[in-house]
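[recover] target loaded
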C-alpha cells in the first residue's frame, strides 16, 4: 500500500512518505534530491504568463522612482489568492506603482474594493494612472497617503478578506498584529520580499530587517490562529490564513 504524501513532517522511523529512509527527516530528502531552480527556470516562471502593456509601463516607471514592484510570478500568485477566496475587501501596504494592486484587483470579485496605503504621494499618483488605465476607478481602488502603522488602526476590524504587506520590512511584525484584527476568519495575510536579500536565512544577521522578517515568521508559526507557508515565489511570499482557535 502506498504511504500517503500528506504525512510529510512525521518522523522517518514511523513513515517514509518520500521513500528516503536513510534520512532522519523525510523533508531532508526532498531538499537534497530537488535542486534549486536554475536561473532559466526562474525566468520562465516570471515570463510564461504575459503582463499587459499598462503593467509593463508601470514597471518601467516604478524603476525610475526606485520603487521595486512585485515580481511577475508574485503578481500572478496574488491574483490567484484573491480569486481563490473571492476577495471583496483587500488592504495593501505599499501601493508603489500599482503593480501588485492591479494584480489583486484582477483576482477580486467584480465589486471588490482595494484600499492601498503608501506614504509617498508621488508613487501613488503613478499608481492612480496605472489603475485608471486598467479600468479601476476611485471606488474600486481607494488610495490612502500615509504611514502604514498610522492608517491600518483606523480601518474596520474583521472587515477584510486579504491584507497584503509590501512596505517597510522593519514594520512587518507590527503590521501582522494589525492585519490579524482587520481580517475576517478565513482571510489571508501576505508579506512580500521575505527572501529578498538572504538575510532571513543568516541566523547571525542582526540587522533590523532580518530580525523583523524572522520575527514575523515566528509569530505566524507560534500562533494557532494562523496556518502559514513561506513560498519561494518572486522575492519570497509569506502567506497565512486566519483560522478559529
Ligand atoms: C516595494 S514598494 C511597493 C511596490 C508595490 N507593492 C508594487 O508591486 O507595485 C514599497 C512601497 O512602500 C512604501 N512604504 C515604505 N514604508 C512605508 C510605510 N511605513 N508606510 C506606508 N508605505 C510605505 C514606499 O513608499 C513604496 O512605494
Amino acid at each position: 500500500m502506498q504511504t500517503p504524501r500528506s504525512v510529510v513532517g512525521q518522523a522517518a522511523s514511523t513513515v517514509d512518505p518520500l521513500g528516503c529512509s536513510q534520512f532522519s527527516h523525510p523533508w531532508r530528502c526532498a531538499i537534497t534530491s530537488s535542486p534549486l531552480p536554475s536561473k532559466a527556470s526562474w525566468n520562465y516562471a516570471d515570463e510564461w504568463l504575459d503582463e499587459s502593456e499598462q503593467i509593463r509601463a508601470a514597471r518601467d516607471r516604478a524603476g525610475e522612482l526606485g520603487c521595486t514592484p512585485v515580481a511577475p510570478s508574485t503578481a500572478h500568485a496574488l491574483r490567484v489568492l484573491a480569486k481563490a477566496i473571492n476577495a471583496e475587501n483587500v488592504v495593501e501596504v505599499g501601493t508603489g506603482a500599482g503593480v501588485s494592486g492591479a494584480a489583486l484587483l484582477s483576482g477580486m470579485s467584480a465589486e471588490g474594493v482595494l484600499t492601498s496605503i503608501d506614504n509617498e504621494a508621488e508613487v501613488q499618483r503613478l499608481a492612480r494612472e496605472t489603475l485608471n488605465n486598467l479600468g479601476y476607478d476611485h471606488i474600486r481602488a481607494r488610495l490612502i497617503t500615509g504611514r502604514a502603522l498610522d492608517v491600518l488602526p483606523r480601518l474596520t476590524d474583521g472587515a477584510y478578506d486579504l491584507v497584503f504587506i509590501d512596505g517597510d520590512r522593519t514594520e512587518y511584525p507590527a503590521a501582522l498584529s494589525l492585519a490579524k484584527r482587520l481580517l475576517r476568519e478565513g482571510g489571508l495575510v501576505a508579506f512580500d520580499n521575505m527572501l529578498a536579500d538572504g538575510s532571513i536565512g543568516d541566523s547571525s544577521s542582526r540587522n533590523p530587517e532580518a530580525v523583523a522578517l524572522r520575527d514575523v515568521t515566528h509569530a505566524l508559526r507560534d500562533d494557532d490562529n494562523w496556518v502559514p507557508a513561506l513560498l519561494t515565489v518572486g522575492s519570497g511570499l509569506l502567506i497565512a490564513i486566519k483560522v478559529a482557535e
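[recover] notes: The mean pLDDT is 89.
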